[in-house]
Amino acid sequence: MDQPKIEQIVEPKDHSKKDQTFRMVHRYCTEIRMRFTKCMQDYNAYENVDAAAKYLRSKPSLLAALIAVTFAVGLPVLLFTLFAITTIICTFTVFILIEGTILAFGTIVLCGVLLSIITSILMLGTCLLCNMYGLDSTGI
How many domains is the chain partitioned into structurally? Predict the structure, then answer.
């Protein structure tokens, strides 16, 4: 069978980095699609799927059983996947919230301690200066 050729994309120098990345991804996706098509043709998968579909159309009860089994097997997998994704999202969200709260609380405590230390030093210095210059100016 004729296989489509991957077209060679010549990238001019004036294209932006975004365009070059898009073209590269597009080229890789095209190559993967062509390899998949070739593999499906080599193993006669298209013909086998068509034959199975014709057989199932002639036996509706078997088709209903196949759909029920697929649903029964697929539902737990789907629910587990959704549960895992939801758990990951909630974990990261709560982690960010807790870390943000801890950082905010720590920042407030640190600012309070530093402000009290600076205020104490300034008050002590002011008192010492007032005491020293106050006593000297009165002549005592």
Answer: 1
